[in-house]
Design brief:
Helix content: 25-40%
Shape: globular
Number of strands: 10
Radius of gyration: 17 Å
CATH superfamily: Zn peptidases
Strand content: 15-25%
CATH class: Alpha Beta
CATH architecture: 3-Layer(aba) Sandwich
Largest sheet: 8 strands, mixed
Order of helices and strands: EEHHEEEHHEHEEHEHEH
Distance between the termini: 30 Å
Length: 273
């Protein structure tokens, strides 16, 4: 159900203190958990499942495509939601995994949120065009996201107002990578978290591993990487421990709620005149 709420002070984007009203909608926790539990045991099957979840969410026809990537079996999955402007907000997360575990944390937790976020954004008027992308082969060196960014060309890259990356969520409360990323996007996320009393802390993980946001950061696109890793939970990745029982469902749902409102907020304040 859609709600009108009062978001944070809009200082960084307009240069003048003001408040904005953000219309947003959220799905019930049970639906978020259902999609989290729909992980498969191979990258090809995961791509197919993500495609299916997008279709269930209403992304069909010409708006849902698969982008073949050279030397990779599973393609990128792309769901486009046109807006009033050509400017794009890309929301991404990789679906491939290391088979030592089930790959639920890294990164079905991130990519399975994409259809839900699409459904939420779709339900309200929007200025920007949104593009939700499930990237292939992140674990082999961000292959899918680098291919996607390269194929856009210079003109396509210029249209991107922000890239929001979701990777390894739910092992703790929401975390933010600040070593590498756009400071205005980070401040906007912090403002939304404060307004809605949702937890958010900074934990820099860039030095121990790159993520799909780097494929866009390297091309000077404003990016933000949202995760849940700490010194205690980082060792879960790429091991047998990466199972669904490592997801703290209340924290995971809080992250979904935060990103949901954050996207609606960015749509209002980015490129504002």
């Amino acid at each position: 159900m859609a709600r009108l709420i009062l978001a944070a002070m809009l200082v960084l984007f307009s240069g003048a203190a003001q408040t904005v009203q953000v219309k947003y909608r959220t799905l019930p926790k049970s639906e978020i958990e259902r999609r989290l539990g729909a992980f498969e045991d191979s990258n090809v099957k995961r791509e197919q499942k993500l495609h299916q979840l997008f279709e269930e969410a209403g992304c069909t026809g010409e708006h849902l495509t698969e982008q073949a990537v050279k030397h990779v079996k599973a393609p990128n999955v792309i769901c486009k939601l046109p807006g009033e402007m050509d400017s794009e907000i890309i929301v991404g997360g990789h679906f491939d995994f290391v088979t030592a575990g089930k790959g639920v944390v890294d990164n079905w937790s991130g990519c399975s949120l994409l259809p839900s976020l699409y459904s939420d954004v779709r339900g309200t008027p929007r200025r920007h065009s949104f593009v939700f992308v499930g990237f292939t082969d992140e674990e082999r060196g961000m292959v899918g996201s680098q291919f996607y960014a390269h194929q856009m060309g210079k003109d396509g890259i210029k249209k991107i107002s922000a890239m929001v990356n979701l990777d390894s969520l739910g092992t703790s409360s929401t975390k933010l990578e600040l070593d590498r990323g756009d400071k205005k996007l980070a401040s906007a996320l912090a403002a939304v978290a404060m307004t809605f009393n949702l937890p958010l802390t900074v934990v820099n993980v860039h030095r121990v591993g790159r993520s799909d946001s780097d494929s866009f950061q390297d091309r000077h696109v404003p990016t933000i990487n949202i995760h849940s890793l700490t010194n205690e939970t980082f060792p879960i990745l790429h091991t047998r421990q990466d199972q669904i029982d490592k997801i703290r469902l209340d924290d995971y749902y809080d992250t979904y709620r935060l990103v949901d409102v954050y996207l609606a907020y960015l749509d209002l304040v980015l490129d504002a005149k």
